[in-house]
Amino acid sequence: MSPAENCDRVLLVQAEFDGELDAAQAASLMAHRETCPVCRAAAAELAQTRELLRAPGLYQPTPDAVRARVLARLGSAHPTARPTRSWFGGWRQGWAGFGLGAACAATLAFLVLMPAEPGLVDQVVSGHIRALQPGHLEDVVSTDQHTVKPWFDGRLDFAPPVKDLAADGFPLKGGRLDYLAGRPVAALVYQRDKHLIDLFVWPEAGVAAPPATAARNGYNLVHWSADGMALWAVSDVEAGQLADFASDWQKSR
Question: ∠ CA(233), CA(124), CA(194), 5° rounding?
């Protein structure tokens, strides 16, 4: 890649794929990509790599004996590094100086030990955990749905539904912008006793779908779709109460 073809923001493309950008950074990068061929190409390569790694049958259970031999070989290998330019302007270890056996061992270890790219459930949980940090929970603080809903006007390319569930025991606390599933989304914040509930909302084509539940790392999730919107509720509240929240939301007008 020549200097003229480089871009000092291309490293952020990888960070976006890893879910490391906050909503403002992600939105800024999305706008930048519209006019930057380098970042668009990098994003396309990452997307293609992700699809290849998700191909059926790519990952197979590894016998313990094979894993042990790979790790033992890696522990005894001492490669000589040679810097080479990568797509992202950083430096990585080159293959020069590797013996053939060490190179094969390193390649096998990459396929065996590399964690899977986080799915949407993990992104939702990570977004909720990130928001719990001080100062990240709400961009607009209000218990009034008629204050929270208009706040999103001009900040998103859709109008998220905002409902008041205080009578059902889930008072509204406010909302914020977030970034999930490769796009800016609305995050509505509700409360149940001392527990906080994030409800992520964004447009989704297709027919309405009933609630489906999941759990990850001590957090419960309920996902459903209605009126052209995908809705994901996540909280550390008990699973039954989160299901009640989803039910109350669907009943409310």
Answer: 50
Q: Are 185 and 178 in contact (CB under 8 A)?
A: yes
Both tokens of 34, joined, read 């519209």
- The answer to whether 197 and 234 have CB atoms below 8 angstroms apart is yes
Pairing of strands 195-203, 83-85: unpaired
Predicted pLDDT at 58: 53
Mean pLDDT of 27-52: 84
What letter would DSSP give residue 165?
Answer: B
CA distance 205 to 195: 31
Radius of gyration of the chain measured on its C-alpha atoms: 22
Q: Which amino acid is at 67?
A: R
**Residues 202, 183 contacting (CB under 8 angstroms):** yes
How many angstroms separate the CA atoms of 171 and 175, rounded? 12
What distance lies between CA 2 and its chain's CA centroid? 32
Residue 193: per-residue pLDDT: 93
Domain boundaries, the chain: 3-53, 64-113, 120-251
- At the second CATH level, the architecture of 120-251 is 3-Layer(aba) Sandwich (3.40)
- For all residues of the chain together, what is the average pLDDT? 79
With 0-12 / 13-18 / 19 or more C-beta atoms within 10 angstroms meaning exposed / middle / buried, residue 154 is exposed
pLDDT at residue 67, rounded to an integer: 67
